[in-house]
Amino acid sequence: MAFSPNPLSLSVPDPAFESWLRDSGYLDLLDHRTSAAASAAAAPAASSSSSSAPAAPSSASDDVVSSITNGFFASLLTRLVTVSSLLTINPFSKLSADDFSGDTPPWTTGFFGACDSYSFPAASQQARMRVHENVKRFARNYATLFIVFFACALYQMPLALVGLLASLALWELFKYCSDRWKFDRHPSARKLVIGIGQCATAVLLTFLNVQMALFSALAVSYSVMLLHAGFRKLTPSKKTSRGR
């Protein structure tokens, strides 16, 4: 039975529908949709490779072993490409200042979640989407982790801790002297003292290895953020009304 065209029917393009899902907060449906699309794209290749029949019965076992081996290495290569694609993603491209103004998501149920809250991204597109959305959602958690890693780095490098405290004390001394001797009335003298303070701070931070502690904390927190955001499944945001 053929149906007549409905003038009220609408054809929504996929980018518009995905944008609506993202704006409405249905991030889990968007994640599942991306995973299903990647699986559907990989299905024809798998079916074409398995459709070839063996030439002789004696070589059937060899063909089975060969197909299993090829499938394993193909899957391993795909996963390696997906993981390496995380290094090409800019996780801060969609981050804004408003993402740090909200409440911090709970660490147990929100940030870490259960074991089934993680899955291997089906494709690079899904990994990119997860990183962007999870970085926006857990921005305050990642910032807290960076502070913790930086504190651990300073604990392991006491000289860097001394340099950081010395630089803070230097600027507190500058503020005290500025208020005491009214440097605001003498702009040229104020600029000179600020320049001297900046040079002294740079020397302290460089020779006392504060930049090394900062770099190590940044590297560890950035790696943890990419892995967590890439493997963490998307969940519905607070915009949705599900569960009410």
Give the overall shape, derived from the CA principal axes.
elongated
Order of helices and strands: HHHHHHHHH
Detail the poorly predicted runs. 52-56
Task: Give the biggest sheet.
Answer: none
Please state the structural category: mainly alpha
Total helical segments: 9
Task: Report the β-strand fraction as a percent range.
Answer: under 5%
Mean pLDDT: 79
Rg from alpha-carbon coordinates: 28 Å
Number of strands: 0
Helical percentage: 55-70%
**Spatial separation of the terminal alpha carbons:** 41 Å
Structural write-up:
This is PRA1 family protein. Belongs to the PRA1 family. InterPro entries: Prenylated_rab_accept_PRA1. It is built from nine helices and no strands. It has 244 residues and is an all-alpha fold. The longest helix is centred in the N-terminal third of the chain and has 26 residues, at 60-85.
